[in-house]
Amino acid sequence: MTDQTFRPEARAPRGFADKRAATLRAERRIVEAVSRVYESWGFEPLDTGAFEYADALGKFLPDSDRPNEGVFALQDDDEQWMALRYDLTAPLARFAAQNWETLPKPYRRYAFGPVWRNEKPGPGRFREFIQCDADTVGSARPEADAEIIAMAAAGLKAAGLPEGGAVLKFSNRKILDGVLETAGVSDGRQKLIVLRALDKLDRLGREGVADLLGKGRLDESGAFTPGAELSAASAGLVLDFLDMAVAGAPLDQLANAAFAKAEVALEGFRELEAIVAALKGLGVDEASARFDPSIVRGLEYYTGAVFEADLQVETLDEKGKPIRFGSVGGGGRYDDLVARFTGERIPATGFSFGVSRLAAALKAAGREVAGENRGPVVVIAFDQSRMADYFAVAAELRTGGVPAEVYLGASGMKAQMKYADRRLSPAAVIIGEDEFAAGTATVKDLDLGRDLARGMTDNAAWRAERPGQQTVARADLVAVVRKIVDAAQ
Question: What is stated as this protein's family in its record (predicted)?
Fold first, then answer.
């Protein structure tokens, strides 16, 4: 008789990644380092739930070209639609509106956690990923934007990027609003298509952007993206602005352009001048943050300053070939988001970065911290009848500040040593009947063996004094193991 029990295929849903210790530790280290920076600037942590009511997200879905898509949604028991948060900004807007009377104003908060997007997954594009945000709600001052920019630069440095490893490029959406006003573009749908087209310049090039300003674009897969259908004159003015922006036109040159006659553009230039002055006061030089008019940001809710963190360090893939990461974070001013709930305009500005993306960028730039993926010291179960004693040894090591575990499989000595090696354990502790009787323990330095296998010759003096295996008194066990562990850090 055949076994017809249903056995599902072991597979992860597309766009959802399994993460092991190395990835999780790298992400945790980034979050902890950046959190310390944000708190030192006076920002308090906030955590909101994974779900928000779908009507709280409104028109600010990540992909409004596909109605009812872009988020993972379900109905609550009262038939209200809820959706997994697609970013950390919309929940902040809801929280601020709900608690505005009791919050300190301005309200300065940072947050980190998973977000979910119901979009087509692809290389480097996931449906679930970790974001880390910092926002100021309740200040319309350009200096609040400058502070976010400066703090973002400090946070990225704390996360592991070297000095100058990323530059915060900033501009002001009001300049582009002046361009569109001068071009006679007033339709909301057209504006959004233009914004998203300009934001794709790096990927599509000038020709691709021009197609999206016109009838639309057919990509290599045969998929057609409808364009803004601007007139030739309107599209030409937008492209003139784009050409000046790509050329890195300075503030004063842009201010004398035709589109600068619009009052909204003049307002944008005044705000940018205040941001530049504030950054100077904060001690932030142009290597860390500078004006770049090509920064647009595709999301519709930005109303003023916009900024992106552009990676500057060399990055290599696993085969040693150069790769470009580009932006590792961004943000801007969104003065209308809270007003969706209250009807009252409450200014806000913030910065966000993808933790997983930054961790991948740091790895590609060779900025991983040594010893970050270390396993615990493994106490070998040499004699199965002495398991309680082995647990006492592991507890003694942990009390002394050394991560430790007892091997709990059923394999012999060789397999246990292989297990410790796969865990990247710095050392293994072996105590047999003779050691128990003599009050000793054998300590095997696994790091030394790995270093010798790789032909490493640095720190030769220490390695010459460092036995690969030694028998020590039980009273000295913690100190000896501690020395091996510390040497690996």
Answer: Belongs to the class-II aminoacyl-tRNA synthetase family.
pTM over 0.85: no
Q: Residue 249 has what pLDDT?
A: 82
pLDDT of residue 468: 86
Domain with CATH 3.30.930.10 in the chain: 21-185+238-364
Q: Which part of the chain has CATH 3.40.50.800?
A: 377-487
Residue reference for tokens 């809820």: 82
Whether residue 378 contacts residue 423, with contact meaning beta carbons closer than 8 Å, is answered with yes
CA 137/CA 350 separation, integer angstroms: 8
Q: Exposure of 455 by Cβ count < 10 A (0-12 exposed, 13-18 middle, 19+ buried)?
A: exposed
pLDDT score for 162: 87
Enumerate the known binding-site residues: 87-89, 117, 131, 135, 297, 301-302
User: Domain 377-487 in CATH: superfamily?
Assistant: Anticodon-binding domain (3.40.50.800)
State the binding site for L-histidine.
Answer: 87-89, 117, 131, 135, 297, 301-302
| Mean pLDDT split into 10-residue runs, the chain, 489 residues | 82 92 91 97 97 77 50 87 91 96 97 92 84 97 97 95 90 90 86 85 88 89 88 90 85 82 91 96 94 80 92 77 81 92 94 91 73 82 94 96 95 94 94 94 89 57 64 95 84
Rounded to the nearest angstrom, the gap between the alpha carbon of residue 406 and the centroid of all alpha carbons in its chain is 35
Return the residue matching tokens 């950390």: 88
CATH architecture entry for 21-185+238-364: 2-Layer Sandwich (3.30)
Asked if residue 268 lies in contact with residue 182, where contact means CB atoms within 8 angstroms, the answer is no
Tokens 């493994």 locate to: 378
